[in-house]
Amino acid sequence: MKNLSLRLAFFLSLMPFLAWSQSEEPQKWTLQQLIDYALEENIQVKLAELDVQTSEVARSQAFWNRVPNLNANANQNYAFGRSIDPFTNQFTNDPVRSNNFSLSSNMTLFAGFQLHNAHMQSMADLEAARYGLQNTRNTVSLNIASFYLTILFNQELLNAAQLRLASTRIQHEQVSKQVRLGALPQANLLQLNQQLATDELEVTRAENTLALSQLNLLQALQMPADTELVLDIPAINEPTINFTLPTVEQVFEVAETTQPQILQAEKNVKGRKLGVSIARGAYFPTLSVSGNMFTQYSSIGTTRTFTPYDTPLLLDQGLPLGASSPSQTGTAIPVFPFEYGQTQVSSISFADQIDLNRRENLSFTLSIPIFTRFQSRNNVSNAKINLERAELNQKNVKNQLRQTVEQAYYDVVAAAKTFDAVQKQVIALEESNRNIEQRFQLGAANVVEYNQTRNDFNRAQSDLIRAKYDYIFKLKILDFYQGKPLEL
């Protein structure tokens, strides 16, 4: 009994947490959240980001190519047997351990402005890569917005089909009662059975279409197909038809200065122009400066010091060698000091050898191209071809943008007219449908007339939903080319 009470108390203590976990709603995704997620996970966006990083590295390298380099070298050598002392350059039979140390640096002073133009080209390429990334992000954002609006459209179609099915079922029950009572013929019920099956089929089709549009969105987001994705569906009011749109030329002028694909093409042309200047720089002489510092150490590096005897050996005029009479006239000078002195040998320390053996040099080199087997000329020709290709691509991008803007503009105009016409059609059919429904309930209209009018009204409602979302999406596309954000 005590254990049962403890278990019951423990279960009751968990009730608030269980209730909270059951009542917790799944995350609802807004359009902006979907776009942000896609921009973070999309592979094409990541590849474009890598292109930007590569261009940043190239720009950094082009900048540092203009400054001097600095290299340090060190080596250690061991010599045995008869070898040359690197310190005295004399033969020796002693083992020798030596070290060499050097610093070297060089810098290009002038090379036909190739280094400067290469740096400017790398900056243009970096800006082009950034615009390319922005263009990729825009494409992904437009795709996500399209899939999102398609889901909203299909959801409304499903809701409309479900409402029609519910209405048909109610009508079917009423007619069934009247047929059983003999107030209506059996043919009316058979017609409603056919209509009920048609409406159920429409609901199934709408469910399948909605599921397919959700799958398309999941694939665009690179999520698994079984991911539960709940959308935060905003309240979308009936769009106002605006026939006072800006002209095509006005929209194109804005798009031409804001769309990244245009700006990317311009930067590519600028980079290829600099490429021609770089290739022409090879015609000019190249002036460079270099300098280095060298020192070394040897394990047998020594110095020799001569110390004479106290009594020098004199050489006097008319006296034999060895005479030392101070009374005799003459000049006392040392003769053959190696015969009356001694030599002291002492080693030189590592630091002293490094200091004593140091030497530096500075040199300037002028290289004048005389004949390069037409390599420079061919490089210039290739650079001009690349420039012409970039200019043609720029024109092509502008033409494509103009065509896209023109298409978007006339799509909006056509969608607005269609939406307006379908609205009028729905209003007219709604009145007819209301009238035929009243007549059918009173027995003044047969089921064939009722189903025909009702189906026409349902078809018009579906057309209105389709025209509504088509107009909204195409209007958003036109707003996008005017530099406006994607918002519902």
UniProtKB/TrEMBL annotation:
Gene3D superfamilies, per the entry: Outer membrane efflux proteins (OEP)
Localization of this protein: Cell outer membrane
One Pfam family it belongs to: OEP
The keyword Heme appears for this protein: no
Recorded coiled-coil stretches: 380-439
Main location class: membrane
Keywords: Cell outer membrane, Coiled coil, Membrane, Signal, Transmembrane, Transmembrane beta strand, Transport
InterPro entries membership: OMP_efflux (IPR003423), TolC-like (IPR051906)
Signal peptide: 1-21
Keyword presence, Membrane: yes
Family the entry assigns: Belongs to the outer membrane factor (OMF) (TC 1.B.17) family.
This protein's name: TolC family protein
Organism: Shiella aurantiaca
